[in-house]
Amino acid sequence: TVEPLDAVRFISNHSSGRQGHAIAAALVKRGARVTLVSGPVNIPDPLGVAMVHVGTAEQMLAACEAALPADIAICTAAVADWRAREWVKGKIKKRPGDTAAPTLSLIQNPDILAQLSSHSQRPGLVIGFATETDNLEANACEKLKRKGCDWILANAVSTDESDGTVFGNAQNKVLLMTGNGQEDWPLMPKTELADRLVQRIIHTIGAVNAES
Ligand code: C5P
C-alpha cells in the first residue's frame, strides 16, 4: 500500500505485487472466482479476476471486507504497517533558511490478515505471507498464532542481489507453515509457486469436503 504524507510524498515499500497477481491468475486457471484487491503496482491486471485497485491500507481493508463472504482469503500484500497521523492536503514546503527537518508522527494501520482471520464472515481458509530478514521459522510460527490465520508462507528476503530472494524479484523461496507442520519449498518463479499453492489448496479443500 501507499500511505500519503502530503500531496506529493508517501510511505511505501519495494513490493512488486507479482506474487499476489500470480496467485490470482493461478486460481482463475483452476476455475475459481477471484477478487484481486491490489495496491498500486506496475504490472497488468490478471485476466478473469474482479479487480479492485486501492491506495492505502484502510482502503484495502474496506475492499477485502466488501469481498466477503469468500471461501479462501490469501493475503500477499505488503501492507504499510504505519501511516501518517495526519496528512497535509498540499505540499509540505521546505523554506529557505529552515534548519530543522519536520517530525513525522505515525500511527499503526489495521492488520488486514488478522481482521479477516477473526471476522464474523471468516473465510474457511485464511492464508498469509511473512517476509522476514532473520529468524524465519520462529517469526513465522509466532505470526501464524498471533494473526489467527491457517497457513503462513514465510519468505526470507535478502538485500544481496545475487541470491535470488530480493524483495520485488520474480522468484520466491518459502517455508509453508500450517497448524500441522511445515514444508520447505525450493526457490522457484513466483508463477510456479502460485500454481503449487493452488494445488495445495485444492488438495486440502478436497480432503475437508471428502470428510464432511
Ligand atoms: O506482520 P507482517 O507484515 O510481517 O505480516 C505479514 C502478513 O500480514 C502478510 O500476509 C500481509 O499481507 C499481512 N498484513 C496485513 N495487514 C497489515 C500488515 C500485514 O494484512 N497491516
Structure notes:
The strands form five sheets. The protein has a five-stranded mixed β-sheet with strand order 5-8-9-11-12. Strands 1-2 form a two-stranded antiparallel ribbon. With 212 residues, it is an alpha/beta fold. It has helices at residues 18-29, 57-66, 112-117, 136-147, 190-211; strands at 3-4, 10-11, 35-38, 50-53, 72-75, 82-84, 106-108, 125-132, 151-156, 171-172, 174-178, 181-184, 188-189. The mean pLDDT is 92. The chain is built from five helices and 13 strands. Helix content is 29%, strand content 23%. Bound molecules: cytidine-5'-monophosphate. Cytidine-5'-monophosphate binds at residues 57, 75-77, 79, 81, 109, 111-113, 128-131, 143.
**What is the straight-line distance between the termini?**
39 Å
The largest sheet is: 5 strands, mixed
Series of H and E elements:
EEHEEHEEEHEHEEEEEH
How would you describe the shape?
globular
Task: Give the helix proportion (percent range).
Answer: 25-40%
Strand order within the widest beta sheet: 5-8-9-11-12
Write down the Rg.
Answer: 19 Å
Estimated share of beta-strand residues: 15-25%
Give average pLDDT, whole number: 92
Uncertain parts: none
Task: Report the bound ligands by name, code or SMILES.
Answer: cytidine-5'-monophosphate
Which structural class fits the helix and strand makeup? Answer: alpha/beta
Count of alpha/pi helices? 5
Oligomer: single chain
Number of strands: 13
